[in-house]
Write a structure and sequence with these properties.
alpha+beta, OB fold (Dihydrolipoamide Acetyltransferase, E2P), five-stranded mixed barrel, globular
């Protein structure tokens, strides 16, 4: 009986830890696995670095949107107003909602990818968009998608 109670308590404890929000986004905080080696490229130069294949490394940019459901993706804005999507690999970590407006360095692999209408609508729902905004999404979009293993808040 004691073993069952101990196992039950351990399960409840781990579920409680998993449900907690990530720490606040302040300079120096790291989410996931982040290496201090290597210099980031600007979010504005990322597409050039991808070329016809992919780019592995770091990118620096300002977060303008984050998944409101799980913190599993964020959008970095380029100077021309367009965005780069960064997505946490396999939901290994979460970014906090207060990361919006912060400058970050994300580390991972970037590729050009066509995002389906269904996935675009899913992202819009996660972002808290209205039904009207979601219904306006009618076509897939070719965009840069960076699958990240870590992110560091720098500003």
């Amino acid at each position: 009986m004691k073993r069952i109670l101990v196992v039950f308590a351990a399960v409840i404890f781990s579920v409680t830890l998993d449900a907690q929000d990530p720490s606040p986004a302040v300079p120096g905080v790291v989410y996931g696995n982040f290496s201090e080696k290597g210099s980031p490229v600007s979010v504005n130069d990322l597409e050039k670095k991808i070329g016809g294949d992919k780019y592995e490394g770091k990118v620096k940019g300002k977060v303008v949107e984050v998944c409101q459901a799980m913190g599993c993706w964020a959008k970095l804005q380029k100077e021309d107003g367009s965005i780069i999507m960064i997505k946490v690999k396999d939901h290994e970590f979460a970014m906090p909602k207060d990361i919006v407006g912060k400058t970050v360095i994300a580390e991972g692999e970037a590729k050009m990818k066509q995002t389906s209408v269904a996935q675009l609508k899913h992202y819009a729902e996660d972002a808290g968009k209205s039904k009207e905004e979601i219904e306006k999404i009618k076509e897939p979009k070719t965009e840069v998608l960076m699958t990240i293993k870590g992110v560091k808040v720098v500003e």
